Amino acid sequence: xxxxxxxxxxxxxxxxxxxxxxxxxxxxxxxxxxxxxxxxxxxxxxxxxxxxxxxxxxxxxxxxxxxxxxxxxxxxxxxxxxxxxxxxxxxxxxxxxxxxxxxxxxxxxxxxxxxxxxxxxxxxxxxxxxxxxxxxxxxxxxxxxxxxxxxxxxxxxxxxxxxxxxxxxxxxxxxxxxxxxxxxxxxxxxxxxxxxxxxxxxxxxxxxxxxxxxxxxxxxxxxxxxxxxxxxxxxxxxxxxxxxxxxxxxxxxxxxxxxxxxxxxxxxxxxxxxxxxxxxxxxxxxxxxxxxxxxxxxxxxxxxxxxxxxxxxxxxxxxxxxxxxxxxxxxxxxxxxxxxxxxxxxxxxxxxxxxxxxxxxxxxxxxxxxxxxxxxxxxxxxxxxxxxxxxxxxxxxxxxxxxxxxxxxxxxxxxxxxxxxxxxxxxxxxxxxxxxxxxxxxxxxxxxxxxxxxxxxxxxxxxxxxxxxxxxxxxxxxxxxxxxxxxxxxxxxxxxxxxxxxxxxxxxxxxxxxxxxxxxxxxxxxxxxxxxxxxxxxxxxxxxxxxxxxxxxxxxxxxxxxxxxxxxxxxxxxxxxxxxxxxxxxxxxxxxxxxxxxxxxxxxxxxxxxxxxxxxxxxxxxxxxxxxxxxxxxxxxxxxxxxxxxxxxxxxxxxxxxxxxxxxxxxxxxxxxxxxxxxxxxxxxxxxxxxxxxxxxxx
Length: 699
Known about the structure:
The chain is α/β, with parallel strands linked by helices.
């Protein structure tokens, strides 16, 4: 029987589409001439035909070579090869091609053709390289001319506006095409760069730059040099989405917080630095907080704790995807701890202080081996970043609970730098009341000012002391402002716009990337940390969910024809519903997958209850309101024998619960698997019927 077998070639592989080289070309020409001469001599072909064919070939190759603009040497070599080959063939047909004289002369002719072809090939390659180099030199000359024009223009402008005569050493065009940087030498006599920096607004106006574009001066390679960044395209007005790449980051290699006006990301390094983010209402500060949390979520060596006394709104979007998986793959929260009250925030800050003090003692040997006085941060010993929304206002508040928290915040900032605990504080304005604390100014060297065009309470001189030429009206757009770090001077930047669906995607994409708190720190943190997700401490997350109204079951006699005793059902002890059972199974699955903290027994003394230092305790899910799932089950039951579909249920729940069709599909699949529902039909015609209304199975 015929069958397919794999054959393996062991010989050389010929590329029949490849062109001839010097050797193969000469070999082809000589063998062709020999074959033609032998055939012509045997058949009595007129010798003049070979000469005519060679002449035609020479003319044809000359024309094509001229079109290709080849060198005269190459054209002459090709024409001569055709004519010599045709002449030998004509002679061989007349005198006989198989004599030693004929064969020897043909071999000599082939060697000559090959050598000439090799020589002309090298010559053509040299000509091509020279042409490319000439084109590059032309581009360089044109670019140099443009740069020289820019240099001359700005030398005149700085002389006219600042009264200084500088010497431009280089002009670097930005790869993004949005501006350029001038590297210049300052005049002698002790002139400093800030003579130009303070005239930023006048230079921008003199250059007729578009709104949102600036000419800012900063320190050069030495104190006698200056760098002038000139933005020519307004990139601040555009809305820039958060990058779709959610790949891993590290605290030690920098976390991007936005884009400079030249299109490059702005990395921040927070191993030793705290951060202060200032932005009035409407400037994009909340979005900036989510951008910061997104960067921390993507890292492999950071645990994020969030304090937001405004109902925890900054951290809720990063927690809820772990609570509402919709029957899909369970995920961990995007942050490790969330505090929405003064009491919970105090527990968090006290735990941070205990961790910092215990790390100092427990990791002495590790730091000695690493020869450093800074705790080596890694995925095994993660840094703790405490993001405190409107934390600067807490420091300035006068009420007693806020004063207690302020003292704890300052203690964390003061003692925990070397041990890997840092803070990110936000504030509504750059005022003396907010920036008056010396500890904040000294430790918070990473500073952001989102202006949004707001001038009230935005003193950029206090936010960035020593910087000149910064004005609020330079960044009038939402999400735009200024950022300064110890590595880079303050300058304009644009914060990314991050959407709620991106937050959910980041939580899901980074769920398996979050580190767990090291055992040494977990022991110091104690039960306050281990039980941070307990029901009693996270019940507020679910308090806002409304209780659904379940439609009454239809009576046999039709609407209004029977006795409705639903009011009595509330008094009866209810058995575990299908929704509650599914929620319980979901909690068991997530506990098993993420090694969550063990549940305490209600009768067990508090001192004997187990704690978990590194696991995730989602016991708060036990009290989670299953309103949407219960409403979906009620709709399935109310549909009767006709049944319903996933799209119809999702539309009914969308307004009140915001439930997606994908979530409903997951519920229906689960109910079909456990017998709660029966699926009838396939594809788009599929409908689901509650088991109490399902038709009986056939014999």
